[in-house]
Amino acid sequence: MAQGQQPILILPQGTSRYVGKEAQRINILAGKVLAETVRTTLGPKGMDKMLVDSLGDIVITNDGVTILREMDISHPAAKMLVEVAKTQEDEVGDGTTTAVIIAGELLKEAEKLIEMGVHPTIIAVGYRQAALRAQEILEDISIKASDRDTLMKVAVTAMTGKGSERAKEKLAELVVDAVMQVEEDGEIDRDNINIQRIQGASVNESRIVNGIVIDKARADTSMPKRVENARIALLKYPIEVKDLETDAKIRLTDPSQMQAFIEQEEQMIRDMVDKIKSSGANVVFCQKGIDDLALHYLSREGILALKRVKKSDIKRIEKATGARLVTNIEDLTEDDLGEAGVVYEKKIFDDVLTFVENCKDPKAISIILRGSTKHVAEEMERALEDAIGVVASTIEDGEVVAGGGAPEVEIARKLREYADTISGREQLAVSAFADALEIVPKTLAENAGLDSIDVLVDLRAAHEESPYMGLDVFEGSVVDMKEEGVLEPQRVKKQAIQSAAEAAEMILRIDDMIAAKGFDVSSKDEEDMEGMGGMGGMPPMM
């Protein structure tokens, strides 16, 4: 720059920029801290976290994605790992903690290689090769199965350690029955299984409903509370006189015109109710509003009606009863009606619910989930959702793997053999990938109060004989998980390893961070970040 010239500012004043190893170190630290936060929740003996928001509302859980979603995380690299957990939840429904801790460990191993002088791009290439090879190994060690007994074992494994210990067998029965009921052509839409969480009773009082439960009461107390042999109409049309869409004014010059206007509105509503009655419907679920006068006429005709029913509930009723949603009441015919043995209103604890029961082969179903307190019921619901996800994945794929850290140890063993066949520095990255996968059995051991080094040595030795050997955290010994019936869907492991590898690769390839004014991700706040202050100001989680 010539003497006297002013410096050229490309970025706004106050913008922070971190380049090269500094940027990589900050991002890796964020990933490691996030993984450490959820790590203690893994496995049957994992601990819970208590999360308190700004309003004082409490969430107690050991579900990885729930913890990450409830935390107010601001660090950009940490947010990328939160996305890994969310994707895992959406795709499979379980394995969110596994995915995050593998991603965190991959970053930790990469940091060691960077310090040794290995370029991040080479590490990323090696990780990609290792992830592809890991998928192939996973296919080789998978067990073909989708019978009911296997589904029960998968559901029980998913719920073990999630607060549902006392009733996991019963809940597993409910989950398997529900998933098998809604299965269509080998596919399961998890949205077709509705969980109605109600506190005030033991988990053992939970039950499956042969139909749908809606958390709404009838639109008017004068309507029948129970309708047998229900003929159900679903309307996406308001049973009321529509307001004028423009600012038009109606000028009345005579009192009789006012009376005629009112009578005309009444007649329109009466015609709508007559249309419903003539179709043969005796139960109406309306997605829109229902006029008070319409409620009076419907009550007089003995028709049970619910208004402003959620779109998701309408969809489930369609699946359960065979009804078709009608967008114009003039088009409603008998062919559009669905059938149910009974529709009735019932109060359970503090909740007034409407039951649509005794449906013929319903492809949508509800589970009434009980819990002694609000927080117990909420955690039960999360465990149930995980179980539904894994059972659905097992039915769709027909493949499971052993649990207890067995797949990770076997993949790590085979990856080390694969690394010996690779020339170049990528070999180091593949070996590092293998070491990172062993974080799963190490964490299971630590959370059970066992010596992780001894456990890992025993597991490696056992895997020379069988790929199904895993850690029994209750006995503290290495056992055959296939024989013990500890099984997980292959898709859980496949998705966890793939998404963790991709997230780690993306973070490693970042060598320049430009942060807007007021957003500080600098290393000088390292101590804060260790206490989660760098990711939303949360206190340290022990």
Mean pLDDT: 84
Rg from alpha-carbon coordinates: 29 Å
Number of strands: 19
The CATH topology of the largest domain is what?
GROEL, domain 1
What separation lies between the terminal Cα atoms?
A: 53 Å
Number of helical segments with 4 or more residues = 18
Largest sheet: 7 strands, mixed
The structure class reads alpha+beta
pLDDT < 50 stretches? 523-542
- The CATH level-2 architecture of the largest domain is identified as Orthogonal Bundle
Described by the principal axes of the CA atoms, the overall outline is elongated
Indicate how many domains the architecture comprises. 3
> How much helical structure, as a percent, in the residues?
40-55%
The CATH homologous superfamily of the largest domain is named GroEL-like equatorial domain
Bin the strand percentage: 15-25%
CATH class of the largest domain: Mainly Alpha
Region (Disordered): 523-542
GO molecular function: ATP binding; ATP hydrolysis activity; ATP-dependent protein folding chaperone; unfolded protein binding
Biased composition (Gly residues): 531-542
Family: Belongs to the TCP-1 chaperonin family.
